[in-house]
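A quick aside before the break. I want you to see a complete sequence-to-structure record at least once, exactly as it would be stored in a machine-readable document. Don't worry about memorizing anything.
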Amino acid sequence: MAIKARTLKRTGITVYDIDFRDQDGDRVREAAGTTMTQAKSLLTKRKGQVLDGTYRNPKKEARKAEEAKGPTFAEFADRFIREYASARRSDYYEQRLRPAIEPAPGVKEKRAGPLRRELGARYMREFRPADFDAFRLERSNASYQGRQLSASTVRKDLTLLSTMFKLAKRWGVIDTNPAADVEKPKEPEPQGRPLSTEEWGKVAAQLTPTLRALSLFALAAGARLQEAVRLRWSDVDTRGGFIYFSAESKMARSKRVKLGEAAKAVLADMERVRKEVARATSSVPEFVFVYPNGGTLHSKRERNRVSQRWRDAAETAGMPWASFKSLRTTAASWAEEEGIPVGETKALLGHADVRTTQRFYVRSDADRTANVVSALDRRLVSGVDTQVDTRPETPSSEATARA
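That is the input. The structure line, written in C-alpha coordinates, reads:
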Protein backbone atom coordinates (compact mmCIF):
# COMPACT_ATOMS: atom_id res chain seq x y z
CA MET A 1 0.00 0.00 0.00
CA ALA A 2 1.29 3.46 -0.89
CA ILE A 3 0.41 7.13 -1.09
CA LYS A 4 1.36 9.15 -4.13
CA ALA A 5 1.16 12.87 -4.74
CA ARG A 6 0.50 14.50 -8.10
CA THR A 7 0.02 18.07 -9.29
CA LEU A 8 -2.91 19.00 -11.53
CA LYS A 9 -1.54 20.79 -14.59
CA ARG A 10 -4.52 23.06 -15.08
CA THR A 11 -4.80 24.36 -11.50
CA GLY A 12 -1.40 23.56 -9.93
CA ILE A 13 -3.11 21.96 -6.94
CA THR A 14 -1.45 18.93 -5.34
CA VAL A 15 -3.68 15.92 -4.79
CA TYR A 16 -3.02 12.50 -3.28
CA ASP A 17 -3.84 9.02 -4.51
CA ILE A 18 -3.66 5.77 -2.59
CA ASP A 19 -2.57 2.48 -4.13
CA PHE A 20 -3.56 -0.84 -2.56
CA ARG A 21 -4.77 -4.33 -3.43
CA ASP A 22 -8.28 -5.63 -2.77
CA GLN A 23 -9.29 -9.03 -1.39
CA ASP A 24 -8.71 -10.64 -4.79
CA GLY A 25 -5.20 -9.22 -5.09
CA ASP A 26 -6.19 -6.75 -7.81
CA ARG A 27 -4.54 -3.35 -7.69
CA VAL A 28 -6.75 -0.36 -6.91
CA ARG A 29 -5.89 3.34 -7.25
CA GLU A 30 -8.23 5.84 -5.58
CA ALA A 31 -8.20 9.63 -5.19
CA ALA A 32 -7.69 10.48 -1.50
CA GLY A 33 -8.00 14.27 -1.15
CA THR A 34 -5.63 17.26 -1.13
CA THR A 35 -3.74 16.59 2.13
CA MET A 36 -1.49 13.83 3.38
CA THR A 37 -3.70 13.48 6.46
CA GLN A 38 -6.73 12.73 4.30
CA ALA A 39 -4.75 10.24 2.27
CA LYS A 40 -3.41 8.38 5.35
CA SER A 41 -6.88 8.27 6.91
CA LEU A 42 -8.47 6.82 3.78
CA LEU A 43 -5.63 4.32 3.28
CA THR A 44 -6.05 3.06 6.89
CA LYS A 45 -9.79 2.72 6.32
CA ARG A 46 -9.36 0.78 3.09
CA LYS A 47 -6.74 -1.49 4.72
CA GLY A 48 -9.21 -2.43 7.44
CA GLN A 49 -12.01 -3.08 4.89
CA VAL A 50 -9.74 -5.36 2.86
CA LEU A 51 -8.72 -7.30 5.97
CA ASP A 52 -12.30 -7.86 7.19
CA GLY A 53 -13.60 -8.52 3.64
CA THR A 54 -16.04 -5.59 3.50
CA TYR A 55 -14.26 -3.62 0.75
CA ARG A 56 -16.09 -3.39 -2.58
CA ASN A 57 -14.05 -2.45 -5.63
CA PRO A 58 -16.16 0.22 -7.46
CA LYS A 59 -14.98 -0.88 -10.91
CA LYS A 60 -15.76 -4.52 -10.20
CA GLU A 61 -19.14 -3.64 -8.75
CA ALA A 62 -19.98 -1.57 -11.84
CA ARG A 63 -18.87 -4.44 -14.04
CA LYS A 64 -21.03 -6.89 -12.10
CA ALA A 65 -24.00 -4.55 -12.31
CA GLU A 66 -23.51 -4.26 -16.06
CA GLU A 67 -23.21 -8.04 -16.41
CA ALA A 68 -26.35 -8.51 -14.31
CA LYS A 69 -28.27 -6.46 -16.83
CA GLY A 70 -27.22 -8.86 -19.57
CA PRO A 71 -26.89 -7.91 -23.24
CA THR A 72 -28.70 -5.07 -24.89
CA PHE A 73 -31.24 -5.76 -27.61
CA ALA A 74 -28.63 -4.77 -30.23
CA GLU A 75 -25.99 -7.08 -28.74
CA PHE A 76 -28.38 -10.01 -28.61
CA ALA A 77 -29.57 -9.20 -32.15
CA ASP A 78 -26.02 -9.77 -33.40
CA ARG A 79 -25.97 -13.21 -31.78
CA PHE A 80 -29.49 -13.97 -33.02
CA ILE A 81 -28.50 -13.15 -36.61
CA ARG A 82 -25.29 -15.14 -36.36
CA GLU A 83 -26.69 -18.28 -34.72
CA TYR A 84 -30.28 -18.36 -35.98
CA ALA A 85 -31.33 -15.92 -38.69
CA SER A 86 -28.33 -16.55 -40.94
CA ALA A 87 -29.40 -20.18 -41.32
CA ARG A 88 -32.81 -19.21 -42.67
CA ARG A 89 -33.48 -18.75 -46.38
CA SER A 90 -35.41 -15.53 -45.90
CA ASP A 91 -33.33 -12.45 -45.08
CA TYR A 92 -36.25 -10.66 -43.40
CA TYR A 93 -34.80 -11.04 -39.89
CA GLU A 94 -31.45 -9.64 -40.97
CA GLN A 95 -33.10 -6.69 -42.73
CA ARG A 96 -35.06 -5.70 -39.62
CA LEU A 97 -32.12 -6.18 -37.21
CA ARG A 98 -29.07 -5.24 -39.26
CA PRO A 99 -26.55 -2.77 -37.81
CA ALA A 100 -25.77 0.47 -39.59
CA ILE A 101 -23.16 0.11 -42.31
CA GLU A 102 -20.51 2.79 -42.61
CA PRO A 103 -20.64 4.32 -46.08
CA ALA A 104 -17.76 3.62 -48.39
CA PRO A 105 -16.59 6.37 -50.74
CA GLY A 106 -19.36 7.02 -53.24
CA VAL A 107 -21.76 4.62 -51.50
CA LYS A 108 -24.91 5.72 -49.72
CA GLU A 109 -24.99 5.10 -45.97
CA LYS A 110 -27.09 2.12 -44.94
CA ARG A 111 -29.16 2.76 -41.85
CA ALA A 112 -29.64 0.21 -39.11
CA GLY A 113 -32.72 -1.97 -39.33
CA PRO A 114 -35.90 -0.42 -37.89
CA LEU A 115 -36.12 -2.77 -34.90
CA ARG A 116 -32.50 -2.17 -33.95
CA ARG A 117 -32.98 1.59 -34.24
CA GLU A 118 -36.01 1.56 -32.01
CA LEU A 119 -35.09 -1.06 -29.41
CA GLY A 120 -31.33 -1.52 -29.70
CA ALA A 121 -30.22 0.41 -26.59
CA ARG A 122 -32.56 -1.37 -24.16
CA TYR A 123 -31.43 -4.34 -22.12
CA MET A 124 -33.11 -7.66 -22.87
CA ARG A 125 -33.98 -8.15 -19.19
CA GLU A 126 -35.75 -4.80 -19.01
CA PHE A 127 -38.56 -5.74 -21.39
CA ARG A 128 -42.03 -6.35 -19.99
CA PRO A 129 -45.23 -7.65 -21.69
CA ALA A 130 -46.68 -4.13 -21.68
CA ASP A 131 -43.75 -2.96 -23.81
CA PHE A 132 -44.87 -5.20 -26.67
CA ASP A 133 -48.45 -3.94 -26.42
CA ALA A 134 -47.13 -0.39 -26.69
CA PHE A 135 -44.86 -1.42 -29.57
CA ARG A 136 -47.80 -2.99 -31.44
CA LEU A 137 -49.90 0.17 -31.09
CA GLU A 138 -47.00 2.40 -32.11
CA ARG A 139 -46.13 0.32 -35.17
CA SER A 140 -49.78 0.06 -36.19
CA ASN A 141 -49.91 3.87 -36.40
CA ALA A 142 -46.48 4.30 -37.97
CA SER A 143 -45.86 5.06 -41.62
CA TYR A 144 -43.09 4.46 -44.14
CA GLN A 145 -42.56 6.60 -47.22
CA GLY A 146 -45.91 8.27 -46.67
CA ARG A 147 -47.89 5.03 -46.32
CA GLN A 148 -49.14 3.45 -43.12
CA LEU A 149 -47.44 0.20 -42.18
CA SER A 150 -49.56 -2.79 -43.13
CA ALA A 151 -50.95 -5.20 -40.56
CA SER A 152 -48.80 -7.86 -42.21
CA THR A 153 -45.59 -5.90 -41.50
CA VAL A 154 -46.57 -5.28 -37.87
CA ARG A 155 -47.42 -8.96 -37.46
CA LYS A 156 -44.07 -10.02 -38.94
CA ASP A 157 -42.17 -7.69 -36.61
CA LEU A 158 -43.99 -9.03 -33.55
CA THR A 159 -43.39 -12.60 -34.71
CA LEU A 160 -39.68 -11.78 -35.05
CA LEU A 161 -39.59 -10.32 -31.53
CA SER A 162 -41.46 -13.31 -30.16
CA THR A 163 -38.90 -15.65 -31.74
CA MET A 164 -35.97 -13.60 -30.43
CA PHE A 165 -37.18 -13.59 -26.84
CA LYS A 166 -38.12 -17.26 -26.96
CA LEU A 167 -34.55 -18.10 -27.97
CA ALA A 168 -33.17 -15.64 -25.39
CA LYS A 169 -34.94 -17.61 -22.67
CA ARG A 170 -33.79 -20.93 -24.13
CA TRP A 171 -30.19 -19.68 -24.25
CA GLY A 172 -30.32 -18.45 -20.64
CA VAL A 173 -30.10 -14.75 -21.48
CA ILE A 174 -33.41 -13.95 -19.75
CA ASP A 175 -35.38 -15.82 -17.07
CA THR A 176 -38.86 -15.34 -18.51
CA ASN A 177 -40.16 -14.56 -21.99
CA PRO A 178 -42.08 -11.25 -21.89
CA ALA A 179 -43.20 -11.76 -25.50
CA ALA A 180 -44.72 -15.20 -24.91
CA ASP A 181 -48.32 -13.93 -25.08
CA VAL A 182 -47.81 -10.95 -27.35
CA GLU A 183 -50.99 -10.00 -29.18
CA LYS A 184 -50.52 -9.74 -32.94
CA PRO A 185 -52.71 -8.12 -35.59
CA LYS A 186 -55.05 -10.48 -37.35
CA GLU A 187 -53.53 -12.36 -40.27
CA PRO A 188 -54.38 -10.23 -43.33
CA GLU A 189 -56.35 -11.71 -46.17
CA PRO A 190 -54.32 -12.61 -49.25
CA GLN A 191 -53.80 -9.63 -51.48
CA GLY A 192 -55.06 -9.65 -55.04
CA ARG A 193 -57.04 -12.39 -56.67
CA PRO A 194 -56.41 -15.21 -59.12
CA LEU A 195 -56.16 -14.57 -62.83
CA SER A 196 -58.77 -15.89 -65.20
CA THR A 197 -57.58 -17.79 -68.27
CA GLU A 198 -58.25 -14.74 -70.40
CA GLU A 199 -56.38 -12.42 -68.01
CA TRP A 200 -53.39 -14.74 -67.91
CA GLY A 201 -53.28 -14.66 -71.71
CA LYS A 202 -53.30 -10.86 -71.74
CA VAL A 203 -50.42 -10.61 -69.26
CA ALA A 204 -48.42 -13.31 -71.05
CA ALA A 205 -48.71 -11.38 -74.30
CA GLN A 206 -46.92 -8.42 -72.65
CA LEU A 207 -43.98 -10.46 -71.33
CA THR A 208 -40.66 -11.11 -73.03
CA PRO A 209 -40.14 -14.71 -74.21
CA THR A 210 -37.89 -15.51 -71.25
CA LEU A 211 -40.29 -14.11 -68.66
CA ARG A 212 -43.26 -15.70 -70.43
CA ALA A 213 -41.59 -19.11 -70.25
CA LEU A 214 -40.65 -18.55 -66.61
CA SER A 215 -44.20 -17.47 -65.73
CA LEU A 216 -45.85 -20.34 -67.57
CA PHE A 217 -43.57 -22.80 -65.81
CA ALA A 218 -44.25 -21.24 -62.38
CA LEU A 219 -47.99 -21.42 -63.01
CA ALA A 220 -47.83 -25.01 -64.28
CA ALA A 221 -45.66 -26.22 -61.39
CA GLY A 222 -47.06 -24.01 -58.63
CA ALA A 223 -43.53 -22.69 -58.08
CA ARG A 224 -42.37 -19.58 -56.30
CA LEU A 225 -40.23 -17.15 -58.27
CA GLN A 226 -37.22 -18.09 -56.14
CA GLU A 227 -37.80 -21.80 -56.78
CA ALA A 228 -38.22 -21.38 -60.51
CA VAL A 229 -35.16 -19.19 -61.17
CA ARG A 230 -32.93 -21.43 -59.02
CA LEU A 231 -33.96 -24.60 -60.83
CA ARG A 232 -30.94 -26.39 -62.30
CA TRP A 233 -30.93 -28.85 -65.16
CA SER A 234 -29.60 -31.42 -62.70
CA ASP A 235 -32.92 -31.03 -60.81
CA VAL A 236 -34.97 -32.03 -63.86
CA ASP A 237 -35.69 -35.73 -64.39
CA THR A 238 -37.25 -35.81 -67.84
CA ARG A 239 -37.14 -39.61 -68.02
CA GLY A 240 -38.93 -40.10 -64.72
CA GLY A 241 -41.13 -37.05 -65.33
CA PHE A 242 -40.31 -35.10 -62.14
CA ILE A 243 -38.85 -31.78 -61.05
CA TYR A 244 -36.89 -31.57 -57.82
CA PHE A 245 -36.97 -28.20 -56.08
CA SER A 246 -34.08 -27.90 -53.64
CA ALA A 247 -34.19 -26.65 -50.06
CA GLU A 248 -32.90 -23.23 -51.18
CA SER A 249 -36.47 -22.01 -51.41
CA LYS A 250 -38.21 -19.67 -48.99
CA MET A 251 -39.44 -22.47 -46.73
CA ALA A 252 -36.09 -24.31 -46.78
CA ARG A 253 -37.99 -27.46 -47.75
CA SER A 254 -37.33 -29.62 -50.80
CA LYS A 255 -40.19 -31.03 -52.84
CA ARG A 256 -40.81 -33.18 -55.91
CA VAL A 257 -43.34 -32.13 -58.54
CA LYS A 258 -44.71 -34.20 -61.43
CA LEU A 259 -43.95 -32.76 -64.85
CA GLY A 260 -47.09 -31.75 -66.71
CA GLU A 261 -47.40 -31.16 -70.43
CA ALA A 262 -47.21 -27.36 -70.08
CA ALA A 263 -44.04 -27.60 -67.98
CA LYS A 264 -42.51 -30.10 -70.44
CA ALA A 265 -43.13 -27.70 -73.32
CA VAL A 266 -41.39 -24.89 -71.42
CA LEU A 267 -38.41 -27.10 -70.61
CA ALA A 268 -38.13 -28.07 -74.26
CA ASP A 269 -37.98 -24.40 -75.24
CA MET A 270 -35.39 -23.65 -72.55
CA GLU A 271 -33.33 -26.63 -73.72
CA ARG A 272 -33.11 -24.98 -77.15
CA VAL A 273 -32.06 -21.71 -75.48
CA ARG A 274 -29.46 -23.64 -73.50
CA LYS A 275 -27.92 -25.08 -76.65
CA GLU A 276 -27.87 -21.68 -78.36
CA VAL A 277 -26.15 -20.09 -75.36
CA ALA A 278 -23.63 -22.95 -75.25
CA ARG A 279 -22.76 -22.45 -78.94
CA ALA A 280 -22.44 -18.68 -78.55
CA THR A 281 -20.49 -18.61 -75.29
CA SER A 282 -18.84 -22.06 -75.14
CA SER A 283 -20.36 -22.40 -71.68
CA VAL A 284 -23.33 -24.64 -70.88
CA PRO A 285 -25.83 -22.88 -68.57
CA GLU A 286 -26.32 -24.57 -65.21
CA PHE A 287 -29.72 -23.04 -64.55
CA VAL A 288 -32.86 -23.77 -66.55
CA PHE A 289 -34.02 -20.19 -66.93
CA VAL A 290 -31.44 -17.87 -68.45
CA TYR A 291 -31.53 -14.87 -70.75
CA PRO A 292 -30.57 -15.38 -74.41
CA ASN A 293 -27.10 -14.01 -73.58
CA GLY A 294 -26.64 -16.60 -70.82
CA GLY A 295 -27.35 -14.23 -67.93
CA THR A 296 -28.96 -15.86 -64.90
CA LEU A 297 -32.06 -14.75 -63.03
CA HIS A 298 -31.49 -16.27 -59.60
CA SER A 299 -29.77 -13.36 -57.82
CA LYS A 300 -31.89 -11.18 -55.58
CA ARG A 301 -31.32 -8.19 -57.84
CA GLU A 302 -32.52 -10.08 -60.92
CA ARG A 303 -35.53 -11.49 -59.06
CA ASN A 304 -36.52 -7.95 -58.15
CA ARG A 305 -36.21 -6.97 -61.80
CA VAL A 306 -38.39 -9.89 -62.84
CA SER A 307 -41.03 -8.88 -60.30
CA GLN A 308 -41.00 -5.27 -61.47
CA ARG A 309 -41.20 -6.20 -65.17
CA TRP A 310 -44.06 -8.55 -64.38
CA ARG A 311 -46.00 -5.79 -62.61
CA ASP A 312 -45.36 -3.45 -65.51
CA ALA A 313 -46.68 -6.06 -67.96
CA ALA A 314 -49.75 -6.68 -65.81
CA GLU A 315 -50.49 -2.95 -65.60
CA THR A 316 -50.15 -2.62 -69.37
CA ALA A 317 -52.61 -5.51 -69.71
CA GLY A 318 -55.09 -3.64 -67.51
CA MET A 319 -54.48 -5.58 -64.28
CA PRO A 320 -52.43 -3.29 -61.98
CA TRP A 321 -53.32 -5.45 -58.97
CA ALA A 322 -51.53 -8.53 -60.34
CA SER A 323 -47.95 -9.60 -59.61
CA PHE A 324 -45.78 -12.64 -60.09
CA LYS A 325 -47.13 -13.94 -56.77
CA SER A 326 -50.59 -13.97 -58.34
CA LEU A 327 -49.50 -17.06 -60.28
CA ARG A 328 -49.49 -19.25 -57.15
CA THR A 329 -52.91 -17.95 -56.15
CA THR A 330 -54.06 -18.66 -59.70
CA ALA A 331 -52.65 -22.20 -59.63
CA ALA A 332 -54.42 -22.93 -56.33
CA SER A 333 -57.72 -21.43 -57.47
CA TRP A 334 -57.71 -23.19 -60.83
CA ALA A 335 -57.05 -26.46 -59.00
CA GLU A 336 -60.02 -25.78 -56.73
CA GLU A 337 -62.26 -25.04 -59.67
CA GLU A 338 -61.25 -28.37 -61.20
CA GLY A 339 -62.23 -30.15 -57.99
CA ILE A 340 -58.68 -31.04 -56.88
CA PRO A 341 -58.51 -31.87 -53.12
CA VAL A 342 -56.81 -29.16 -51.10
CA GLY A 343 -54.31 -31.67 -49.71
CA GLU A 344 -52.94 -32.35 -53.18
CA THR A 345 -52.65 -28.65 -53.93
CA LYS A 346 -50.85 -28.21 -50.60
CA ALA A 347 -48.20 -30.69 -51.78
CA LEU A 348 -47.78 -28.83 -55.07
CA LEU A 349 -47.37 -25.43 -53.41
CA GLY A 350 -45.04 -26.84 -50.76
CA HIS A 351 -46.97 -25.59 -47.74
CA ALA A 352 -46.38 -27.11 -44.32
CA ASP A 353 -49.94 -26.42 -43.17
CA VAL A 354 -53.07 -26.98 -45.23
CA ARG A 355 -54.55 -23.80 -43.73
CA THR A 356 -51.94 -21.79 -45.61
CA THR A 357 -53.06 -23.42 -48.85
CA GLN A 358 -56.69 -22.70 -48.09
CA ARG A 359 -55.87 -19.00 -47.82
CA PHE A 360 -54.87 -19.09 -51.50
CA TYR A 361 -58.37 -20.18 -52.50
CA VAL A 362 -59.58 -16.66 -53.15
CA ARG A 363 -62.47 -17.25 -55.47
CA SER A 364 -65.12 -14.54 -55.60
CA ASP A 365 -68.11 -14.44 -53.26
CA ALA A 366 -70.36 -15.08 -56.26
CA ASP A 367 -68.59 -18.41 -56.87
CA ARG A 368 -68.83 -19.38 -53.21
CA THR A 369 -72.56 -18.66 -53.03
CA ALA A 370 -73.44 -20.50 -56.25
CA ASN A 371 -74.22 -23.85 -54.59
CA VAL A 372 -76.30 -22.20 -51.86
CA VAL A 373 -78.34 -20.23 -54.40
CA SER A 374 -78.89 -23.40 -56.44
CA ALA A 375 -80.17 -25.23 -53.36
CA LEU A 376 -82.58 -22.41 -52.55
CA ASP A 377 -83.75 -22.33 -56.18
CA ARG A 378 -84.57 -26.02 -56.08
CA ARG A 379 -86.90 -25.42 -53.14
CA LEU A 380 -88.43 -22.25 -54.51
CA VAL A 381 -88.90 -23.42 -58.07
CA SER A 382 -90.57 -26.63 -56.89
CA GLY A 383 -93.38 -24.61 -55.23
CA VAL A 384 -96.95 -24.71 -56.54
CA ASP A 385 -96.97 -21.12 -57.72
CA THR A 386 -93.76 -19.10 -58.04
CA GLN A 387 -95.26 -16.51 -60.41
CA VAL A 388 -95.55 -12.98 -59.10
CA ASP A 389 -98.83 -11.16 -59.69
CA THR A 390 -97.90 -7.89 -61.35
CA ARG A 391 -101.48 -6.47 -61.59
CA PRO A 392 -102.01 -3.16 -59.74
CA GLU A 393 -103.57 -3.53 -56.31
CA THR A 394 -107.18 -2.35 -55.71
CA PRO A 395 -108.47 -1.38 -52.29
CA SER A 396 -110.41 -4.12 -50.52
CA SER A 397 -113.99 -3.54 -49.41
CA GLU A 398 -112.87 -3.58 -45.77
CA ALA A 399 -110.28 -0.96 -46.43
CA THR A 400 -112.86 1.16 -48.31
CA ALA A 401 -115.28 0.90 -45.39
CA ARG A 402 -112.60 2.07 -42.94
CA ALA A 403 -111.76 4.98 -45.23
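Two observations worth writing down. The two ends are 121 Å apart (CA to CA). The beta strands are 2-7, 14-21, 27-31, 143-144, 147-148, 236-237, 242-245, 255-258. We'll return to this after the break.
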